[in-house]
Amino acid sequence: MVITAPVTNMLGTLSAIARAREHAPMLRRAIPGIHLEGPFLAPGDGPRGAHPADSILDPDWGLFRQFQDAARGLVRLVTMAPERPGAIGMIWQLRQAGVVVGIAHTDAKETDIDQAVEAGAQISCHLGNGAHAMLPRHRNYIQKQLATDALMASLICDGHHLPSYVVKNMMRCKGAERIVLITDAMAAAAAPPGTYRLGEVLAEVGPDGYVRLPGTPYLAGSALTMERAIENTARFAGLPLDHALRLANRQPRTLFPDLGDGVVPGGRADLVVLREGPPLNVVATIVEGEVVYQEG
């Protein structure tokens, strides 16, 4: 994921990912694409989240083409605020170009969300986060996205971004078939407490794994790993573990069908071997039949 920063920095990051992927077979297999989260987001406090205000921009197809050229075509998902000037037209252009569009970091009205879906938006990214701390209890952009069946929703189930009962409610509203688990992880994932860099900003990680902008209560990414997200989701929503697993490995394929059909005869042997807990642990990671990680 590449987040909001000065344009030259974003171009440099996208180019670096593309170059690294070209020179390392393992990265080519591990990084099927790039999620561009920014700079086409809402500028206000709350919806903007940890994205730097001075780098937020209106949607611009020409600028996206620069980003995509720097990434050598690797941008597969773009998150944007549909209320920004030019956003609806750009959503249509992105879909025509085969790029998945997500809604997040938004202050959208109901009509903005309807128009975004009509133009081709497919998912609400980290729904429930990147939002105002206080909203009207009924008519708001979170409730509207929850009620919009055409939108899938990705959730950060670390226990900090969303309370456990909110995860359960969202799962019931959307249906498990429309939920995708993500980590929103930054450099602190599985690392000890301390200060880490998130794009152009610094973030502090506490002993409880809460990642915040220094001196504030504002979340700035997460230190979550996917096996913890799966285990948390099963516990929060009361799902069997194998059902929670599907939200991490099967559901994303509905957005990116070129990733293949998963574990099928003759398919790519991309496997994660897990030991059921608690806690759930990764025992081995296999990429195209090659063991690239083994516990111990």
Model description:
The chain is of the alpha/beta class. The chain has a domain at 1-150: Metal-dependent hydrolases (TIM Barrel, Alpha-Beta Barrel), CATH 3.20.20. The protein has ten helices and 13 strands. The chain has helices spanning 7-23, 25-30, 61-70, 87-96, 110-119, 141-147, 164-174, 226-237, 241-249, 252-255; strands spanning 2-3, 34-37, 75-80, 100-103, 123-124, 152-156, 179-182, 194-198, 201-205, 211-212, 271-275, 281-287, 290-294. A seven-stranded parallel β-sheet has the order 1-2-3-4-5-6-7, covered by helices on one side. Strands 8-9-10 form a three-stranded antiparallel β-sheet, with no helix packed on it. The model has no long low-confidence stretch (mean pLDDT 95).
